[in-house]
Design a protein that fits this description.
Blueprint: E1 2-4, E2 10-12, E3 17-22, H1 31-34, H2 37-40, H3 42-46, E4 50-54, H4 70-96, E5 103-107, H5 109-120, E6 127-131, H6 148-151, H7 155-158, H8 164-173, E7 175-180, H9 191-205, E8 209-213, H10 222-232
Parallel strand pairs: 3-4, 3-5, 5-6, 6-7, 7-8
Antiparallel strand pairs: 1-2, 2-4
């Protein structure tokens, strides 16, 4: 049974660890169900092991808007970040009555959001499951000068410079699962190279993560992501 939690966020499940699902580029909250992802993990939902919260994207006005420079895209993303952390996360925690910490999930551009939110706000989101992501916004037809807003939303920029007490805290707090196929479109989208690059950056800083590369017959598409989510999610619920 589907219900609306807040601001168009769709909730599935009656009990279990909460998971925010970010859609792929310019997607909406129904994409997870409409593309068979919910059915792929229905056993976990029905067993009360996970509660799934699907949010809409804001990509059309931020990262996917090629008419504005990269720095402005990053500045506009701040509104989406505030909505997730200040509105959606508190509503989920209230809905779950403190039952488990929130994990994040996304495919393609959704994987970027999952990784970026976890690394920036590990206090709220200590685990991110990221499938076929591209983690460097400057490569998304970006143009114009890059400033602080872009830097602090580019894991391949800021992760290599993490240090001191904050890095120590992240090492103790956050964990990322990075999954990618090696088949069609994983190369042309940049997902395979970007996934490897983020894994290397996390490894260099000693940040907990897993890198799981699937075969050369596994493309960048929904059937692959259904199989990958079904394979991994049970370990974290």
């Amino acid at each position: 049974m589907t219900r609306e939690l807040v601001d168009g966020v769709l909730a599935y499940g009656h009990w279990g660890r909460p998971m925010i699902v970010f859609p792929s580029e310019q997607g909406d909250a129904r994409d997870f169900e409409n593309n068979g992802m919910l059915a792929a993990v229905a056993d976990l939902v029905e067993a009360g092991r996970v509660k799934i919260y699907c949010v809409h994207s804001a990509d059309a006005g931020t990262w996917s808007n090629r008419d504005i420079p990269l720095e402005e895209r990053a500045r506009r993303h701040a509104g989406y970040e505030e909505w997730i952390t200040g509105r959606v996360a508190p509503a989920i925690l209230e809905d779950c009555a403190g039952q488990g910490e929130i994990m994040l999930f996304g495919c393609s551009l959704g994987a970027f959001h999952a990784a970026n939110f976890a690394l920036k706000r590990a206090d709220l989101f200590p685990l991110a499951l990221c499938l076929s992501g591209s983690y460097d916004p400057s490569r998304w037809h970006g143009w114009g000068e890059r400033g602080e807003a872009t830097y602090f939303n580019n894991p391949l920029d800021y992760v290599p410079h993490l240090h001191g007490d904050h890095l120590d805290w992240l090492r103790s707090r956050v964990s990322l699962l990075l999954v990618c196929g090696q088949g069609q479109w994983e190369d042309t989208t940049g997902a395979l190279d970007s996934t490897r690059a983020l894994a290397a950056a996390l490894a260099a800083k000693g940040i907990r993560h897993e890198l799981d590369l699937w075969g050369h017959d596994v493309p960048h598409d929904w059937p692959s992501w259904r199989a990958q989510l079904a394979h991994h999610l049970g370990r974290f619920t």
